[in-house]
Amino acid sequence: MSSRDDPADLPSACEWTAGRPDSCSADPAVGERAESAATAIVLPIRPRSTWVDGAPLFCLAGEAVLAWNYVGLVAHIDPRVPIYGLQASAEPRTIRDYATRYLAEIRRIAPHGPYQLLGWSAGGFVAHEVAVRLRAAGERVRVVVLAADPEARAPAPLPAGRVVPCPGVETPAAVEDATTSTADAATAGTIDVTGDDLDRLAALSATAARMVCGHRPAWLPGDLTVCIPGRAPGGADRLDPGATVRRWRPYVEGAVTGFVFDATPDELTAPDVLPEIARILASAPLAARTTC
Q1: Which whole number is the average pLDDT over 153-163?
Q2: pTM score, two decimals?
Q3: Predicted pLDDT at 288
Q4: 3-state secondary structure of 90
Q5: Using alpha carbons only, what angle is made at residue 269 by residues 86 and 5, rounded to the nearest 5 degrees?
Q6: How far is Cα 121 from Cα 206, in angstroms, rounded to an integer?
Q7: FRET pair for 171, CA 20 to 30 Å: which of 66, 67, 109, 252?
Q8: In which band, very low, low, confident or very high, does the pLDDT at 292 lie, cut at 50, 70 and 90?
């Protein structure tokens, strides 16, 4: 991770304007390896531009480390919606540390809401914490978590070979047409990584998985939407997947809406499931605080 990822080196907010659509992008430092844009903390999947100016969607990778799996959402999300992946970083060690780090990036890209948050597994808990802070600040936030259960066992870290997208992944046309060279580099289809890179990604996955242990979610003003795997990692049916909704209720002020999928936790970001995730995002409330 380069020194430019230190929060002290980042502006508190970027001033995005239609005249400078790339002013909120995450540009790699000159001279860094070409794949650095694809493994940086921010993956600009569909960056803001003159025509992409809706409520931005931030997709949190959790112990998957990289947010490439979310690229498939481009084909199913309103083309006016900017999409950014938030990937694992070496600095944070807890859910709340990650929330602080990601919140700085979110505010840098979009100083004011409304916002949309989507997080998988450990990333779901981080998305929840970020939503807590944004709503406490009076922002409107839509938050959807995937395969995140407050009382489930901590997730297992992913093997090194599973945190890198498979070779031959096609880049959606909307990404290829992105307005910044960073987006083109960051979503070019595959990542050229070394053995050291794989070791680093595996270590980041292990850290992200461990940080779920002992984490107690904060009280979330407003509503929460939860996507629940109906099958266990091994493929067997779960006896009571709806229990996940009940376990979230003590941590949410408003409504907790659950959707159970005929899928394992890993499959909730699979290409054939992403269209349904996009529909759920579109229907989830964009809320600040409720009294329900």
Answers
A1: 63
A2: 0.80
A3: 77
A4: coil
A5: 10
A6: 13
A7: 109
A8: very low
pLDDT over threshold 90, residue 192: no
* Sequence-ordered list of residues with C-beta below 8 angstroms from that of 288, at least 6 positions apart, any chain: 135, 138, 139, 140, 141, 221, 222
Contact 168/190 with Cβ under 8 angstroms? yes
Q: How confident is the model at residue 183 (pLDDT cuts 50, 70, 90)?
A: very low
Q: Tell me the two tokens of residue 104.
A: 């700085």
* Cα torsion angle, 102, 144, 149, 138, sign: positive
Each residue of 115-138: pLDDT tens digit?
Answer: 999 999 999 999 999 999 999 999
Contact 124, 145 (CB under 8 A): yes
Neighbours of 170 (CB within 10 A): 10
Please tell me the least confidently modeled range out of 15-19, 107-111, 130-134, 223-227.
15-19
Beta strands in 47-106 (DSSP E): 57-60, 83-86
Phi, psi of 144 (to 5 degrees): -130, 130
What interhelical angle do 95-109 and 122-136 show, nearest 10? 60
Closest CA to 266 of 150, 147, 161, 151: 147
Burial class, 235, CB count within 10 angstroms (exposed 0-12 / middle 13-18 / buried 19+): exposed
Instruction: Outline where the chain has alpha helix (H).
Output: 36-39, 95-109, 122-136, 173-176, 181-186, 195-210, 243-248, 274-283
State how far the Cα of 43 lies from the Cα of 26, in Å rounded to an integer: 8
Query: Which pair of structure tokens corresponds to residue 214?
Result: 């002992």
The radius of gyration of the chain from alpha carbons, rounded to an integer in Å, stands at: 18
